[in-house]
Give the backbone structure.
Amino acid sequence: MSISPFFFYAFASIAVICSLFVILKKNPVASAFSLVLVFFAFAGIYALLDAHLIAALQIFVYAGAIMVLFVFVIMLLNADVPSFDMGRTHLGLKAVAGLLSAVTLGIFIWTFKSSAWNAALGPFTGDAIEASGGNTQVISELMFSEYILPFELTSVLLLAAIIGAVAIAKRKLSVGRSQ
Amino acid sequence: MTQVEPWVILSFCAIIFFIGFTGVLIRRNILIVLMCIELMLNAVNLTFVTFSKQLQHMGGQMSVFFVITVAAAESAVGLGLVIAMFRTLRSVDTDEIQLLRE
Amino acid sequence: MLALIPLFPLVGFLINGSWYAFGQAPAGCHKAGSKIPGAIATLFIFSSFIVSAFIFNQLLSMEPEHRFIEQVLFSWMKVGGFNLEMAFRVDSLSTLFTLVITGVGTLIHLYSIGYMSHDETPGKFFAYLNLFCFAMLMLVIGSSLPILFLGWEGVGLCSYLLIGYWYTDEEKAKAGKKAFVVNRVGDLGFLLGMFIIFWTFGTLDFTELKHGVEQAVHTGTLVADASVVTLICILLFVGCMGKSAQIPLYIWLPDAMAGPTPVSALIHAATMVTSGIYMVSRLNFFYALSPSALNVVATVGAFTAFFAATIAIAQRDIKKVLAYSTVSQLGYMFLGCGVGAFSAGVFHVITHAFFKALLFLGAGSVIHGMHEEQDIWKMGGLKSKMPKTFLTFAVGWIAICGLPPFSGFFSKDEILWQAFSSVHGSRVLWGLGAVTAVMTAFYMTRLFYLTFLGQPRFDEKKMVSHHAHHDDDHHGHDHGHSDHSVGVHESPWMMTLPLQVLALLSAVGGLMGIPHMSWLEHWLEPVIPGHEGAHGASLVGGVDPQMEWILMGVSVLGAILGIAVAFKLYRNLKGVEGLAQRFAPLHRALENKWYVDEIYEALIIKPLQGLAQVLWKCFDVGVIDRIVLSFGRVSAWTGQTVRLMQTGSIQVYALMLLVGLVATAGYFIYGWH
């Protein structure tokens, strides 16, 4: 793949370091901000891979909306105190988990390295996309033609999620109290 | 080198994914667990995009579109659940959520 | 017809046993008279006697070659090549034994009605007695070794039941146990002998065995003194050592005197202990093939006779003297069989049954009259108090000392002559036998003198109070206590009649075996072939036939010597005590039966108990229990450990997912290579 190695490794290292911060930092707010940095790095990599719309959406939705929501909830629950859970309890379990994850990671990397690309290539080469008007144009055209059904269903899903979230998080009325 | 092998990108995705998975396993704070879930979803997204570029097929990027949407919805509902749970438990410690314990 | 012989006592056992088990035992111990169960039991054994006499009559009129009656009841088991039938065979040998068992048995049953009249559970007693007679009869009329063994074990069982009849007394219960256990040790030898017989000859039936052995000798496949035949004979003799109380397994017989006296008379004098001699005589064709085994039998018999006689000299209990005397006389019988004179051994069995039963019943009468006193040093002068007992006991005394023309003389003398002159005999064996005969005369005279003659050594007034006290528990018994107030009394007719009959038999019973006219030997010829060196002219070893009369004279003189010495000694009781002091260590050893029981205890019983303890503590508890318990512990531990997975925490469950993923991936990757 002809992308710039320098930028890729830069973004990648930021992403890895920040994701390590996410899981290792005591303060939840620090974790949240590290996660935001991870999302930014990812957006950069998406851009490198010519997925421009996705890069933009990543920043809008993930970094902009979801993480804001996370920080809201952290502050709401006063959970911003340094977390209680990085002590030495269940150290054995933690070690086992880390070890097993490392092992599985090793398996995955070995699989990726030793497999061959045999699938047939599709028509969307870089030049073809540029000729069609760019990444966003292509995605939009596909969205409203081939992928219209998932699109509509996703909107219904979002509606359901909104109603659900409101219903779950709402303060319950207790019996005998007029509202 | 002007080339980055595809497997390098995929390995990078795997690294992020397993960092996130480890975080799910070892952290006791619910909110951080949810954050690690988002991390895992992101790693998957990147995998999709890599394949999309490599195979010159738009299906990957379409999938990412929908995954981002669903992830947003899911995190909203999840955080609502955390709030509802907090009302009873007064804590966000997963060790307190032991009703499944025998 | 044959089956009736053991069947009658079996029915008697069932009747008395059921009445006792369902009638008396559950209702608690209300006293029941001994007349009815006793009458039932006696009637049944008497019927058996009638049938035996009838059979005997039939056999008398048969030719020697065909002198047997067989009856097959049913086929008991068929396993592979082994076919065992419940079959009876009465021939010259077994008919004699059935007559003795049923005849003497009837007399003893009658005696027991009187003796056990004060007992609380007479139904049980007579049931056991009948069961014993059933087993003993099965033993002698069985046509194959397994049936014989059935009876063998049955009499062992009844012996245990009857010795420990008064089981509430621990000593008596222990005696019963000792009898049973020691008998079992002998039975092991018997069983091994049976197994080897079956393995070698393929059959256990007596007729088939005899034919098989004759064939094997004829065709030369079985040479004389072959090791397998010797082994069989010796193993079977080990069984006899147990059942017929030879060294080293005789130790149960003196202890067996703990049982009621009729039991001692029937089982341990007249019948059960003679089953060993029956077995040896029945299998004489085996023993004839193996001079070494015969040697063993004769030596053990002679030595036992001598050894037991030495112990009998110093015993105080009237029944113990008679018990050791029985052991000694059994030794004589085996001496007879061991020198090849099986018919002499059988002759002595019959005469011994008469006079020993007589002596025991007499002793029982004395004990009964003396109100359960058994120490002869506390008796004396009973001649005037119990005249009938005195006279009959005297007859038995003379018979056992071996004075002509009473029965004991003929049978004992025959054995001694055979020991001297037979091919298998020797001067040494004769010498042991002769010395024992002198000792027998001595201690029997001692017993007779101290019990009946001389001055009374007990206080009758004490007896009266004891008896009056004793009498309070009696209700309505017809003892005929005419001289009630005097204390020591003669026994009722039910007890003295059997004594008189047995005295008669002891006196004249020897006539069946008079030398050179021996009706008995000719009668037994089909079963026990004629024996060289008996009364024929051809003698191997160059023994002069005139020696027979010389030896006869010698044994009579020896008996008279023993009697005279005893009379002289015990007339002066102070002198006896002085003599005992002078030879104190020897006297103590004799009185304590050469400490044999103590030696066995130290050498055999204590190590076995120690071994049992060790095996129990180290092996049973330490190893086996641990293994069994560990099954439970392992299960519990596994449960506890696996339970740790159920934490209720989803993160742990996610971890389990990862573990499973890694395992599966690993399995597939491993397979890939």
Remarks:
- The first helix of chain C runs from residue 4 to 24.
